[in-house]
Each structure stands twice: as structure tokens, then as C-alpha cells.
Amino acid sequence: MGKHVLLIEDEPNIIEAVSFILSRDGWVVDTHSNGQTAHGVVLEKQPDLVILDVMLPGVSGYDILRAIRGEPQVAQTPVLMLTARGQNKDREMAEQIGANMFMTKPFSNADVLEAVRKLVPA
Amino acid sequence: MSRTSLTGSRIRERRQLKQMRQAELAKAVGISASYLNLIEHNRRRIGGKLLLDIAGALDVEPTLLAEGAEEALIERLRQAAQANAGTGAELVQVEEFAGRFPGWARLIVEQGRREADLLRSLDVLNDRLANDPQLAATLHEILSTVTAIRSTASILVENREIEPEWRFRFHRNINEDAQRLAEGAEALVRYLDTVSESTPEEYGPREQCEAFLARARYHFPELETGHAHAELTEVAGRLISAKVDRIVGKAKELQSAEARALTIRFLEQYRRDAAMLSLKGLRAAVAETGADPIRVSQLFAVDVATVMRRLATLPELGLGLVICDAAGVPILRKPVDSMSGLPPMWPIYKVLNRPMVPIHERQVQTGQKSRETGEGGAMALGIYAVSMPAADRTELGHDMMLEAQMLLVPEKTE
User: Fold this and answer.
1) I need a labelling partner for A63 at 20 to 30 A (CA). Which of A27, A56, B103, B328 fits?
2) Average per-residue pLDDT in chain B?
3) Buried residues in A43-79 as b, exposed as e (16+ CB within 10 A)
4) Which one is predicted more confidently, B118 or B26?
5) Contact status of A108 with chain B (Cβ, < 8 Å)
């Protein structure tokens, strides 16, 4: 069985496309679009990798990341953050809170594959 | 070096501007050329009759030679130098520079003011781009949709053997996202159109004040007392101050304390002017003499500056008015209703050099676009200008603070 990735993103067609390419690459993909309950889902599923959008309805991806890093069971889980903002301060904030990697939209499928393979080596 | 000790430098500068030889000036005032040379190099102080004679020979006010540029101009130059400390401007020589090159000094001050205004506008725009939640949400929506389209299109291109069910789903997704992208782009354009209409929050204090005054057409009937100054009781004066506070309190353009303070100052001056020259009397005078502040001033024995300000507040005339401080920096800019932009400022500088002496000249502005017809061409302006002590800034025992005004009266071109 392949490595497990949890994709937290509210854009349905991004979910479908990213899930497709990761599945074809051998990953087991779970998705979740509700930012309010995302923290609980991470604790429950304890994936090998979290892909996390910064802008979710009603809650910031940064807050979800802080919550993840505050939980001992999942504090070390690699996190790839996705954002529409590519300013240095956003990158610095993500790194300061504990994101392992930061990717700006729009990204290519190849970039996503390269990032997840790097964060969770086979 | 004190300002008065630079009299010699100013004499020399003025003489050279008039292309007069040293020997020529010396002879005109009855001194030797060598003595004049010592004076011009600030090695001999002069005053009294000799100063008057030299000023007369050079066709300049004696005070301009003796005291040089206004203190306000010197102070603004110091501020400009301090704001750009890395340039190494010679602060110890600021008075000499202002005295010898008043035009260049005013240019530096005006450029410093424009730079400060532009930096303020830039800060507001940057802050808006960085922190506006509506803009952030719109951009996020657009970029997320573009991401979905890019990712989905790549899948279709790179996976020729994809199952028909998936192919259909991805084609449908691209179609949906293309529609959402179009809507998002329209929303962004609408937002940017709103921004480009320049809401008052993006203006500096003076621009906010001018935006408010322009909306009111610089005319405030509620402050017109209908009484001459001597008749205005203390109670009436307090009521009108309360009206000023109410007017400013309701002005949506005034977003900062500084903008409100500027507006209060203008309205308080409006109140004082209205008490000196009633609207009814002013309109009757204009019907008789035209919009000629010098003639109206003579009719009512009211100073020219007050008449100029009153004329500018008559909405039916649509006149322009520029008020500047002693350094030539604009405090208020009201363009002529039928014109875009403002004319050159040299009449202002002229009257600052000759306080209390009004001037009247005619300028033809080429390349002007009529606000009424939109057509371009030449427009003639009658320009009246005068400088006088600013009533609310002059105190006993202190140097008078001058303000210069320029009234712009459109004339028919031949």
C-alpha cells in the first residue's frame, strides 16, 4: 500500500485533479474541504503528508498548521502549503509556523509530484 | 552666518541678474567699486540710506536685500535636507542658498512636497493591495480556478489513454472553471474600476479637504450671516462656529484629523470673510464692476485678498483660486470651473516679493481642454494676485506670516 496523503482544499476541481495525479503515482489520497474540522481529521487519519491550502472558508490555513504543530501525535507530519499569495512575508510566515514547503498557485502537476516525493521519500 | 550678514551676497546676485557691472552700480550709488566689492563679499555691513540707494538702483525691495528669503522657505529647505540626509546638502549654507536662488529653493520645496504626497498615496495603495480582504478573496478565487484549469488540462494532454468517464469529468470541470474564471475576472475589473475612482481615503489631507470643498462648490450658505462685521454678536459668532463643526463632522471626504483641521481653518476664514462682505453686496458689486477684485475692494473698503476669496466662493462665477504660504507652497488649489489644471505660479512668487501690492495680468493658456465642451484650444485668464499677512497666523512680537493668493478669471479669447 502506498503512502497516505491528506489534501485539505475547498476548490473541488483542484481536489479532483490533484487526487487523480497523486493516485496514479501510487499515493492513497484523502480529501477534506472544511477548514473548521480539518484539525480533527488530521488527528484521526494521521497521514504521511498534509497538503494544506492557506485560504479556506472561515479559517486560515496558518491556524490549522499551528494546531497540527501543537499536537504531539502529528507535530512532525510534513506539510506542503498551497497559496495564491507568493509574497516573501507569506513564505516566511508559513516557514515560521512550521510548514515544510510552500507552493504558490497556479502550480504545475509536475511541481506537486516533485514536492510530495521530496517530502515523503519512498 | 546670520541672514542679515548675507546682504552682500544678495546684492551681488541681484546685480548679476540685471547684468550690471560692479563699477556701474558703485557709481550709481556714489561709492567706490572696491568698497562695493567688500560689501558684496559680506566683509562690510550696510544699512540705512546706502541700502536704500542700492535697492533703488537694483529695482528691488530693501527688505529683500537685507533679510532675504522668508523664514518659512528656509525652514522647509532644512526639512527637505533632513528628509534626504544622505545627499549631503550643506545645511549651514541654507540661508545663503535661499537668498541667492529663491526660485531654485522654491522648486526644491515644491518637489519635496510632491514627493511626500506621492509617498503617502503609495503607502495607501500598497496597504490596500496587501490587506484588502475583498481583493485578496477575488485574487484567490481567480488563481484557484486557473490552477484547476491548468492541472486538469495537463492531465488530459499527458494521459491519452485516460478512461472515457474521467475524460468527460475533466472536460466538464474545465468548462465550469472557464465560466468561473470569466466571472472572477469581471469581478476584479469591477473592483479595480472602483479603486480608480479614487476614494477620499486614498487622498492626503489637503486633497481630502479640496475634495470636500469641491463637492460643496466652495460655497456655504449656512455660514453667510448677512451682517457686516461690526454687527456680528458674540452669540452669533458661537453659533456659526458650531455650524462649522457640524459641516466638518458630516463631511465624508475628511478621513483624517489633519484634513478636518485644514477644512475648519478654511471655513473659519470663510466665516470671517462673509462677516466683512455680505453675499448680497458682493453680487451687486459684481453686477456693476464685473469680477474685478480691485474695483470691488475700492467700493467696499475691504482688502483685496478678502474680496478675492469671496469672489471664488460664488458658484455662478466658477473662478479659480490658489492660496500659498510664504514659501510658495500651495495651501489651497481651486481650478477654474471651465478649465483643467492650473496656470504657472509665477504671479504668486512675484507678489511674495512685494507684499500688500496687488497685481493684475493676463495669461493665455494653450492646450487647455474645456471642461464644458471637452474641446481643446487657447483660454485667456485674468490673473489677480496679492500677498498679505495671514490673519490667523500673525501674532504680536512675531514676524508676520505671509500668504499669497491668485484669483483666476476666465476671459473671452479673441
Assistant:
1) A27
2) 81
3) eeeebbbbbbbbbbeebebbebbebbbeeeebeebbb
4) B26
5) yes
Section B262-270 average pLDDT: 91
Residue B153 contacts A where some CB pair is shorter than 8 Å: no
Euclidean distance between CA atoms A80 and A103, whole angstroms? 7
At B77, list the grid cell. 529647505
**What are A38-80's pLDDT values in tens digits?**
999 999 999 999 999 988 877 788 888 988 998 999 999 999 9
Query: To the nearest whole angstrom, how far is the Cα of B307 from the nearest Cα of chain A?
Result: 56
Q: By the CB < 8 Å criterion, does B158 face chain A?
A: yes
φ/ψ of B380, rounded to 5, equals: -95, 140
Cis peptide upstream of residue A106 (ω within 30 degrees of 0): yes
Give the cell for residue A83. Answer: 497559496
* pLDDT at residue A109, rounded to an integer: 94
More confident residue, B256 or B28: B28
Report whether B113 contacts B329 (CB < 8 A): yes
Q: Is the dihedral of CA B296, B299, B302, B304 positive or negative?
A: positive
Of A13, A87, A106, the CB nearest to B173: A13
Q: pTM of the full predicted structure?
A: 0.45
Q: Between B165 and B389, where is the model more confident? A: B165
Which of the listed ranges A91-95, B10-14, B62-66, B81-85 does the model predict with the highest average pLDDT? B10-14
pLDDT for B100 equals 79
Contact B146 A105 (CB under 8 A): yes
The whole-angstrom distance between B189's CA and the closest CA on chain A is 18
* B154 contacts A14? CB cut-off 8 A: no
CB B320 within 8 A of CB B218: no
Chain B residue with Cα closest to A58: B137
What residues of chain A, 7 to 26, have a C-beta less than 8 Å from chain B? 11, 13-14, 16-18, 20-21, 24
- Output the CA angle B162-B165-B168, nearest 5 degrees: 90
